[in-house]
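Issue: ligand-bound run for hypoxanthine - logging full I/O for the record.

Environment: standard queue, default settings, no custom constraints.

Inputs:
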Amino acid sequence: MATSTVGDPLPGRRLAIIGGTGLTSLEGLVIERREVVSTRWGEPSGPVSHGTLAGKSVAFLPRHGYRHTIPPHRVNYRANIWALRTIGITHVVAVAAVGGIDAALEPGCLVVPSQIVDYTWSRGHSFFEDELDHVVHIDFTEPYESELRGLVLEAGRGAGVALTDGGTYAAMQGPRLETAAEIDRLERDGCTLVGMTGMPEAALAREAGLAYAHLAVVVNPAAGRGEGPITMEQIEGHLRAGMGRVRAVLEQVVRLV
Ligand code: HPA
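Outputs:
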């Protein structure tokens, strides 16, 4: 059995931010150019923006497209991660909107999760499929890269923004939200927050040899955990409120990576 990543380690450190719902454009990012990258896995969600944030160079790719038209189950995660690797990115901070399962994770909280349970299906989830010399299994015991997680947490301290350190991210298929019983099951499984895009993104980053960490914004209590149904207005309101703090953290992250 072999554990390895695609290609050789890349030199230097180059950061990309993958934007999620509510972050199709990164306010404060001064875009210098946009790069169209075609990959053997198909088209990424859009061109990669290259620019500076708080004076530091960074790349940006919105996973749902620049017009927010690609739903979670249709994102070409392989093309996105491959494109970032192709252009020399070594570190990825992925922003994601999530529902809070743990009552302590109220809407508005920012979380740097430490574990993942993957419930997604039928997504292109590995680079190691065809034309292999040997079968490859990556180690995924710790799905997030620990140094980069630490830098995101440090960025939160630097920005004066409270971040919850740790939590288990349940990656659901979507695009529908969950039933209350599904959330009960996720809680029994030990999950504290739920989203739709964390996988296979994190595993592909590991396969590609990219350091990857999540910055999650809680935008609603998960199904059955709040009052009544979950509305888009509720989600969008909390997203808008949270994005200023997300940006403040990212402005510190670019300094630290
Ligand atoms: N469930 C799954 N994904 C989500 C949620 C949720 O409650 N909120 C934001 N993304």
